[in-house]
Amino acid sequence: MRVLLLTLLVGGALACQNRLDTVVQEAIGGATDLSTSVHDDCNSDVGTFLAAHAPNYKHVLRKSLSLSLKYLAISSHFGSDLNHRLGFKKLFREASDQRFDQAIDMIKYVIKRGGNVKEHLNVKVTAAPLRPQALSSLGLALADAKDMYAEQARLHSAALCLSPSAVGCSVDADLAHQSQDAIESEVERVNELASKANQLAAMFTSTEYSLAEHLFDQHLL
């Protein structure tokens, strides 16, 4: 498998060199139908990302975009005149922006590796906006962060062929590095959300939970 992969990579590099040599010779020879399009042979497709890992990577990308839209809806819910929890509105707006920025960075990475995403951004939006309670909204975001950690960990394992069922897999060192950074971000996010959820839960009593929620909301501003 590794010998075949090396052969394909070397063959691709030689194809680009041969194509450029052809363009040079055509230009020197004064060809009237000279074609300068060499993208098919000369591109940034390197390693095994496009061949083996891109579909799963784009799945995580779409999930990040979906979370961004979900958190935007939750932020609007807390910002309404019926709820007026401006601290939670701010928290989920920032969470939405963070997931959107994450998706943009992932799009840039796909393009850097020679791929495209124009057919892979069909993000599904929930028909009815989510309307969670303040405390349960933290649990929702925490569950999402743990799920995204698991997604990034799977990308990392696949990139390094660490899965027990990895037979004939394809190592991609750059993807492993990129997903490792994402894993660290998710760990930080999980810790932050868990701390907030525990703090607010500890403030709750059967008679004063509304006051506790109000005070915690003000703390988030």
Protein described:
It is a single chain. The chain is mainly α and 221 residues long. 69% of the residues lie in helices and 0% in strands. It contains six helices and no strands. The longest helix is centred in the last third of the chain and has 31 residues, at 173-203. Residues 1-10 have low confidence and may be disordered.
SSE diagram, text form:
Layout: H1 2-28, H2 49-78, H3 86-112, H4 134-159, H5 173-203, H6 209-220
Concise overview:
The protein has 221 residues and is mainly alpha-helical. 69% of the residues lie in helices and 0% in strands.
Entry keywords:
6 helices, 221 residues, disordered N terminus, elongated, mainly alpha
